[in-house]
């Protein structure tokens, strides 16, 4: 398997000028925050996928599970399936899937009538609806995820969904910061402009990692970590942003090589 160092050298040959005009070096706290959100996002993505399989196996009635919302608890992930009521002041939970000791297995509880939720699920569902009204993505399916942010606010992510085994779409994604009650968009961050694909399965056994260059931001993004943690076989990703090179390892940790590192063979 090609080593990460060899990958970095190869990237430098493709982008020999990427060390020029480097932006300020991001702090370790900044990179740790991106890593933490990306790890949570990957957990959300996997939990939603396994929970959805568990609910579908019960053959739910059409219209009862219009939206899924996952939340991380001290014992694992819980995914609520339901929809907003007519007045948008309750989230009606029809099914709730709870992660077991086996992280790929979820136990499902059905609520009939639906449970009325006015907490996190309500705020998340409102935030999703707000974001969807604003979002204009590529012509492809998208996943939606909601993570807690500071001050009880919420991050709402729109990122391309995987629809073909062995092909991992990334880019063309957005993160919204919404108010604590989900009714107001406070910030919109375009994470990546272009829609790309990572296809490691085509070279299974020789895939040493991927790379891409950011043109919108000066650091890796939460969804870059998501890519690394959901791609199989798992391998690092090198991101060039703001004239610096960043390595996202297979556990989601981000290491910054800096402009100086680029001049020594570290690149995207």
Low-confidence segments, given as residue ranges, are: 259-268
Oligomer: single chain
Quick check: average pLDDT?
A: 88
Q: Give the overall shape, derived from the CA principal axes.
A: globular
Number of strands: 14
Distance between the termini: 18 Å
Estimated helix fraction? 25-40%
Radius of gyration: 20 Å
What string, H for helix and E for strand, traces the elements in order? HHEEEEHEEEEEEEHEEEH
Q: How are strands sequenced across the largest beta sheet?
A: 1-2-3-4
Question: For the report, how would you describe the main beta sheet?
Answer: 4 strands, antiparallel
Q: Which class do the helix and strand fractions yield?
A: alpha+beta
What percent strand?
25-35%
Number of helix segments?
5
What does this structure look like?
This protein is an alpha+beta fold and 268 residues long. The protein has one domain (4-43, 50-90, 120-263). It has helices at 4-14, 28-56, 120-134, 222-230, 258-263, and strands at residues 67-73, 76-84, 91-99, 106-117, 142-148, 154-160, 168-171, 174-178, 185-190, 195-198, 210-213, 237-241, 244-248, 254-256. The strands form four sheets. A four-stranded antiparallel β-sheet has the order 1-2-3-4. Strands 5-6-8-9 form a four-stranded antiparallel β-sheet, with helices on both faces. A hairpin with a 6-residue loop joins β3 and β4 (106-117). The longest helix is centred in the N-terminal third of the chain and has 29 residues, at 28-56.
């Amino acid at each position: 398997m090609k080593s990460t160092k060899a990958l970095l050298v190869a990237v430098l040959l493709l982008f020999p000028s990427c060390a020029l005009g480097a932006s300020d070096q991001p702090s370790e706290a900044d990179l740790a925050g991106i890593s933490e959100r990306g790890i949570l996002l990957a957990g959300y993505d996997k939990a939603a996928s396994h929970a959805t399989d568990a609910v579908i196996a019960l053959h739910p009635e059409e219209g009862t599970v219009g939206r899924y919302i996952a939340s991380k608890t001290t014992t694992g992930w819980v995914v609520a399936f339901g929809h907003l009521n007519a007045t948008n002041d309750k989230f009606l939970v029809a099914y709730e899937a709870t992660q077991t000791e086996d992280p790929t297995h979820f136990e499902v509880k059905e609520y009939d009538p639906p449970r009325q939720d006015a907490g996190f699920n309500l705020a998340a569902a409102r935030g999703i609806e707000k974001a969807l009204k604003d979002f204009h993505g590529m012509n492809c399916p998208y996943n939606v995820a909601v993570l807690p942010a500071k001050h009880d606010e919420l991050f709402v992510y729109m990122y391309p969904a995987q629809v073909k085994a062995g092909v991992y779409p990334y880019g063309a994604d957005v993160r919204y910061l919404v108010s604590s009650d989900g009714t107001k968009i406070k910030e919109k961050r375009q994470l990546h402009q272009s829609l790309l694909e990572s296809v490691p399965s085509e070279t299974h056994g020789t895939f040493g990692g991927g790379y891409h260059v950011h043109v919108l931001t000066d650091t890796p993004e939460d969804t870059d970590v998501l890519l690394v943690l959901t791609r199989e076989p798992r391998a690092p990703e090198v991101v060039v942003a703001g004239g610096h090179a960043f390595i996202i390892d297979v556990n989601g940790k981000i290491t910054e090589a800096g402009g100086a590192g680029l001049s020594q063979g570290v690149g995207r």
